[in-house]
Structures are given as C-alpha cells and as structure tokens.
Amino acid sequence: MKRILCFLVCTAMILSIGCSSPKQIYKRDWSTTDAYKSKDVKDLMVKVNKYFQENMSTPTNSWDDAVYHSGNIRAFMHTGVKEFYDYSYEYAVNHHFFVNSGANTINGDFYCISQVYIDLYRLTGKDYMLKDVLRNADFNADRRTSFDWVDLLYMSLPVFVDLTHITGDTKYIDDALRAYKKAREIMWDEEDSLWYRDVRFVFGSQNPDSVTPNGKKVYWSRGNGWAFSALAKSLEYLDKDHKAYEIFANDLKLMADALKERQRDDGTWNANLDDPEHYGGIETSGTVMFMYGYIVGIRLRILDFDTYFPIVQIIYEGLKKHAISKEGRLLYVQPGSDSPQRYANYHNEEKRREQTSQFAVGMFVMALSELMLLCRDYQKQDINLKEPEYTPMTTPTLEEDYYTGKITAKATKEQTGNTADRIVDKKYDDINGQRWSAQGYPSSVTLEFEEVLDLRKITVVPYLNRTYIYTIEASIDGENYNLIVENDGKNPAVRFIDHEVDTKAKYIRLTVTGCTNYTGDWISINEVFVYVKN
Fold first, then answer.
1. Which of 305, 303, 317, 324 is nearest to 264 (CA)?
2. Does the predicted model carry a pTM greater than 0.85?
C-alpha cells in the first residue's frame, strides 16, 4: 500500500513512535491567540473526558460510540494524554479493526468506526488497521456511497477523504463527491445556506415535520453540526487541487455565516436554528460541533481569524459557564434523535440539563484539542508508543449450508416490530425489524423444527456484536431439555458466534441472562442458524 508520509501538515505536533510509522511533520502557519493558555484548555478537556470515561462506556461499533472515539483519538494526538490513546486502542481491538463486523454495508452509521482505525494507523503505521476499512470503502466507492440523511456526512465523508490521502487513489473522494452533490440537491437550502436533516424536513414538502408551529423552517442544530464538522474534518486532508476542495470550502464559509447569525447570546445554539420558540434553549451537541468546525476552518485559513475567532470565544465561554458541571459532566445534550421536535425530556428542565451523550463528548474534546492549537503558547507533543501487541483476526464468515427447513420461533417476551420469528428469517444485519428483541433478563426464545434434526453446530448472531451471556438447551419433546451450550460472554465481540454441538433435537431454547459489553437490559439477537450432520 502506498503510504503518505506527510501527516498532519497543518497540525502542531510531531509524533515520535516506538514502532514503524509514517513520519510526522510540524508546521504552524495559522493565526494564534493569547486569549487562552493551552494548559487551561487542556485541563478542561481532560476533566470532561476523564469524567466520561469513568462514568460511561462505549462498547458498540455503531455511530454514537464511534463518534466519541473519533474525537478522543484526535484529542490524544494533540495532547499526548496516553489514557486517551489506550481507551480508543482497546476499543478498536475489541472490534478487531472490523467495519460492520466484517460485512459490507452502505450505512455510514456503521463505518464511522473507520475514522478511529485510520487515525490509529496514522499513529502506528500498521496496515492491518486499514485492511477492513479498505474492504468496506472499496465496496462503497463503486457508486454505492450515499448520504441520505445529513448525519452521514460526518460518519462517512472524512473516511473517503482520508483514504484518498493515504492511498493516493481518488476513487474514494470521487464517489463521495458524487454522493455529496446528490445530497446537497435535496437537503441544502440555497436561501439560508443550511441543511435539512433529510427529505422529510425540506420546507414546503407538505410533511408536518417540515414546518414549526410558527410557520418557520426546521433546521436541526445537530444535523447542521454533523455537516459543518464533516466539511471541516474533510478539508484537512483533501487535496486543494481536487474539485471537491472548492465546493466543500465554499459550503463551509456559507454555513459559517449562516450559523453566526443564529447564535444565542449565551454562545450556544437552539435545537432548531430557525425558530427560537421551537424547542429553544441551550443544546450542546450542535454547539460543540460548530465550535470544532469554526476552529478547523480558521486553522486551515478558510475562515478569517478576526471575523470568526470571536465566535469561538463566545462558544467556549458559554460552554464553560452553562454546559459543564463541576465534576466534568457535559450538560444539555439532546439524546439520539433526528430533529428538534423529537427531544427526550425537553419539558423537564432538570433532566434536560443533566442529559449527556458519548458523541457530544467526543466532539467536545476534539474541538478543545483544536482550540489548543490556536493558543500561542501551545507546544508540539512528543509521543512514544510501544509496538502494538495484537494479532489480527480473520474476518468472520457465515457457513452457508445452514438448515433451510421451516422453523417456528416463540419467545417469553418480544418487542413490537422485533418479534421472535425474526430470529429465523435468514436476515442478520443490525437493522430494526430483522431481529428478536426483548427487554429484561432473563428472556428465552424457543425454536421448533419440522422434524428431529441431528445437529452439529449452532451459530448465534448478536446485535451490534454484543457479548451476551446465554445457554442453549435441546429437547426432543419440548418438555425435557438438556444443556448443550453455555456461553459466558467472554467470547470476542464478533458477528458470528459458532457453537459446535452433537445432539438430536426437535426444539432448542436460547435463554439470555446478561451481557458483558453492554450495560442496558435489552436483549437483541439478529439470527440463529442451525447446521445438521450430512
């Protein structure tokens, strides 16, 4: 693989790594400020990040956890706080550097994790960290890339830019630009230079979600935050001679002006950028994304320092005053959603204030690490990392000769839309409506075959690679069961969990009693495959 040896041309540090790695170059050619001391910024960032790491977890390969790590690893790059590196490296190892558990996906929510692997590759130079990233990116770059909702710009766009930068192959950014233009035609408002979250929210679409009770447009703050930060992050590694550069830079500048006009007096933004009376109030996730985008735009000299650094200052002071608890908890974060109006606990001021999320913390620490680079007293970081002690895992695959006869499934509990029959529908992607889900441990699902089968293997496909604790029992008559599998949840977090068995059964019963990499109480199993002896 061709490697780009010039990394972080526009950042302020040199990495000295105790293993084979691309050489890092220090160059500082942007305006700086004495308004803040880099140590003070770092101390606040470390306080918030350590509070998060000590009180929350990020076990999944989905977008929300991956976004956190995409920010955390960048924070390490600029600060040298080894605990940050260890936290994201362990996360990557737990997922074996797989994207979507090793299966092709066009859903950017599941390849946002690529950003984490890419930055770890930049730090270590280990090709195995990119292997599965390239597999999935190659699949998408064949005109499959799509940004059907604006969140995907952050999840996906930087991945394609980075891979072109690393490999020299423009197919990644070329296809991403095609998808960007298509998304822009649908979701970009030319009058206001802001993004709608998706086609449902386009003003004048006759969809009730597209207009507020006051008759105004619905510009979701976090949705625009995803777009603004995606453009900024992508521009850092995008070749200025590529046609995408001018398009992305121009949109960043247009958004910067539009956001500036909609900033609240306290430095934050409302959940709806166009209507302060529509779920108004401090909303931190969009705010920290805007902060990141402004700072990177300034650092890349796309945005004028004198015009936009005062905006950054207002954001920073507002966050310190209103959105960080004395313990270091990031406050006022709208939970996972797709719009201002779907805002959990909005009308409960106390709960709304205390709400936080991993993705917002990740964007916050990344933004503050960028702010450090604008501080005149910032010193480049010398970082020493040991050779990674990791043996790459082979991409998991499904044995295709599974039993295809009729299977009836019944569960002790099931979620509407994710019923027991979905566990034997031969669909095993991490998609709602294609899995069995039940709330609360223990819960069981029983599979009944048309006849007694002589079983040799059972494969369990857990949702989001969760390492569930479970047993599998077998029965001939449906009344008397024998234990054939006891899984303690210490297995690797992979897509397919294979259990070799040697038993005859007309019924098998899966009972889930816990999980070792997920703290909630939802049980979700995508599929169970059974294999019979020849």
1. 317
2. no
